[in-house]
Amino acid sequence: MSDCIFCKIAQGTIPSEIAYEDDELIAFKDIQPLAPVHLVIIPKIHLRSLNDVKPENEGLIGHLFGVIKRLAEEFGVAESGYRVVTNTGTDGGQVVGHLHFHLIGGQALNARIG
Ligand code: AMP
Ligand code: ZN
After folding, report:
1. Which of 16, 45, 50, 84 fits a disulfide with 28 by CB distance 3.0 to 4.6 angstroms?
2. For the domain that residue 29 is a member of, what is the CATH number?
3. Number of domains present in the structure of the chain
4. 99 C-alpha vs ligand 1 centroid, how far in Å?
5. Best mutation site among 4, 7, 31 for ligand 1, i.e. most ligand atoms within 8 A of its Cβ?
6. Does 11 reside within a domain?
7. Is residue 17 part of a domain?
8. Contact of 83 with 111, CB cutoff 8 Å
């Protein structure tokens, strides 16, 4: 989508600190990190949210979680612990309308959500 900031990051037209990239996914550092490790992992195709995921996308989502697991190891939080979050829709606090997953760690996180 032409006016989507995360599509622009995926296309390289907006710069980002890329942590991982392949044909299907890109992971980059969040511009306003909530913790010492805060990555955003997105599919390159424009899906608005988890609500847009169809059965044919489920292989992609499985791959995405495998990449998240490896990034947690690479960024040194696999053992200490981390959180994976996908905000969905207005009440879910989604600001950017392109499906994305936050990988947050590197400090003890509040156990309560919301
Ligand atoms: P949300 O839609 O609330 O799940 O979160 C969107 C996230 O994207 C926020 O944590 C922002 O800090 C992050 N973000 C927005 N623009 C950029 C950007 N250009 N580069 C990196 N992260 C961004
Ligand atoms: Zn997009």
Report:
1. 16
2. 3.30.428.10
3. 1
4. 11
5. 31
6. yes
7. yes
8. no
Positions marked active-site: 100
Which residue range forms the structural domain that includes residue 42?
5-105
CA 96 to ligand 1 centroid distance, Å: 7
CA distance 98 to 94: 9
Binning pLDDT at 50, 70 and 90, where does residue 111 land?
Answer: confident
Model confidence pLDDT, tens digit, residues 4-63:
999 999 999 999 999 999 999 999 999 999 999 999 999 999 999 999 999 999 999 999
Look at residue 111 and tell me if it is in a domain.
Answer: no
Q: Is residue 71 part of a domain?
A: yes
